[in-house]
Design a protein that fits this description.
Structural class: alpha/beta
Mean pLDDT: 91
Number of strands: 6
Radius of gyration: 16 Å
Strand content: 5-15%
Order of helices and strands: EEEEHHEHHEH
């Protein structure tokens, strides 16, 4: 029987630090960036790279500049509004950015920039659902749960590779 909550994990090295990938056995449930002091792993989880192999391979391709979109089964927990925001994030083209205000407009509530920012910050699979592509209206980076240095690195990766394909 497949568990409905996270049951499996692996830690994957990347150019932006170690990433903790989680799965329920059928779908990706999380991608977390290495916080200061390391990850807290639930003792009930089983380490299993084979279950997460598609995510590991696609992330490696992305970081190598060879992948622009991800094709992974995901089961993301969140409110209906958060899921709407996360779906819209996946429509932002590789190497491009939009503002929080524009994202709010795209989800049908142009006055909800702060709510969109909050939903963006709760994205459980950063990088794969590209929340790093949302910036402040004035063109500054704004915030990023993984830290601004990682956001800048991801945006630079995409900008450099955008014209190469």
């Amino acid at each position: 029987m497949i568990a409905t909550a996270t049951s499996f994990y692996c830690i994957v090295p990347s150019p932006i630090g170690n990433l903790l990938l989680t799965s329920n056995g059928e779908a990706l449930t999380g991608l977390h960036m290495d916080p200061d002091g390391g990850f807290v792993i639930d003792p009930d989880w089983d380490e299993d790279r084979s279950i997460l192999a598609p995510a590991i391979e696609q992330l490696a391709d992305y970081f190598a500049g060879e992948r622009r979109t991800f094709n992974l089964k995901m089961e993301l927990e969140g409110t209906a509004f958060q899921k709407q925001v996360w779906e819209e994030l996946q429509r932002i083209p590789y190497g491009q950015t939009i503002s929080y205000q524009e994202l709010a407009r795209r989800v049908g509530n142009p006055n909800a920039s702060r709510a969109v920012g909050s939903a963006n910050g709760k994205n459980p699979v950063a990088v794969i659902v590209p929340c790093h592509r949302v910036i402040a209206t004035g063109g500054t980076l704004g915030g990023y749960g993984g830290g601004l240095a990682r956001k800048e690195w991801l945006l630079n990766l995409e900008t450099q590779n955008r014209s190469q394909r």
